[in-house]
Fold this sequence. Notes:
Helices cover about 35% and strands about 20% of the residues of chain A.
Amino acid sequence: MRHGLALVLGLLASAGAMGQADYYDLAPRQVAANTYVLLGAQENFSFENHGAISNTGFIVTDDGVVVIDTGPSRLYGEAMRAAIADVTDQPVVQVYITHAHPDHFLGSNAFEDVPIAALPQTTEAIREIGTDLASNLYNLVGSAMRGTTAVVPTAKADTEHRVAFGAHELELIAARGHTAGDLMVFDHSTGVLFAGDIAFHGRAPTTPNADIAAWHETLAATQQRDFKTLVPGHGPVVEGGEALAQTADYLTWLVQGFEQAAARGASAAEVMFMPLPDRWAALAVEPGEYRRSVSHLYPAIERAALEGDDTP
Amino acid sequence: MRALSLIAGVVFAALLVQSAVVAAAAVPDDPLASSQWRYMARKYFRDAPVVFDERVQVIAPDYAEDSLNTPVQVSAPELEGVEQVLVFADMSPITKVLDYYPIKARPSIGFSFKVQQATPIRAAMRTADGTWHVGGTWVDAQGGGCTAPSVASANPIWETRLGETEARVWPRANGESRLKFRVVHPMDTGLAAGIPEFFITEVAIRDADGETLARVEPYEPVSENPVITLDLDVRGPLTLAGRDNNGNRFEASVAPSGS
Lengths: 312, 259
Ligand SMILES: [Zn+2]
């Protein structure tokens, strides 16, 4: 961790002349009235993609612009603000952070003049490990991270009442499963649901902080809502619940596979190198993400099997 | 049995003398292109013959998601007569990870280890003729695995569970079986400030008659509360007898489950 920080300082000095335009080419896509999405690459963090691997979005209202997630770095956040200014003269008045993963909140340096709201679990996680997450991301994506620090959200997202911005009526939904705090933003005026990383689409879900049972509950409950368009945390925007179903199917397959492997005594490395069925091998970032999930989820499942808990 | 191993020992010693002359200059080039390979070869194989052998399979993730618990599986289903399996990591501050003696067992072992930085993880298998057969793969990491204190070192309550062992045996084809066991132990490396090295030094697996089927000798880089998977040539009730570098002893017994 300390090495990472020293490296950061070195990069700061050498990359001083480069601006955000050299790193991020953000093209907002309109997905509904006044509603825009900036699609991330369907990849892992790399020096080439500068950490821009998740989706961010914004809603233009008569009361100003509402931003959902700020991306992986200060420069990304600045590029996002520039992209918003190309679309509207309205000022940014509110930022929502969906959860405490580095690709979703580390652009908040560019929004420190605006209220930044999140769930309490998200705020707590950013306060506790935000600096470590930033330092790790410096190591993984390099100089695009310069000037990035972990900005702790300034407000608690109001999940009790609908919040109106101009003609847009937003419901802030407190969920969990992907992490301990997953905020979803549902715009009842347009039917657009910003699902954060509760939904992955065409890309393998990530599980470093997952509670799979809670995640399934959230997915099932969300499927019942009357949204029209879903913006997943990763992958293309989609009409209807397909991304929710795909995420649920993947998680079911993942855990069942781990339980079956543990019940026959497979070692963790053996499980990592089991071939994936075509449906899941075709997802972006596989088999890498699957192998990460073995590290996250298999030890507990393996231990339960060692105690004989799988015997019917 | 004793006579046989004595003969094997004599043959082995003779081979050592012979190979000292022949193989001194014959360390093969490293397919993993590690800067430490020649040093590793001198340290662990001295003058014994060394070959890179595709039959020695080492599978591990190319990136250590959890630098404290990086899984590795070593096996060599097509290599006969393996007497010792040495697992080492070139770039680790403590390079020796584990020794395994598969007496009545396959040269096959799965476990997790701590990764401090990008390193080859290798298995060297010594066959009865004294030759070391080597396979391996690179594991990349953010680091910190070996210099981090164990979870247990910060939580003395764990001491009451020290040596607690869970084990399970799965019957396999041809009268063989798979054994997996987990021992509660901090496996401190001695590299974290103020925490002395404290690790399991041996686990012997014995059959009902007390005959040793396999012996595992972990070193400091093996993960805390190690989970170890072995493939035995036989099936039946087993006892596990282990000890650590502080002289603590632990024992467990296990019978095959299921059918
Ligand atoms: Zn996430």
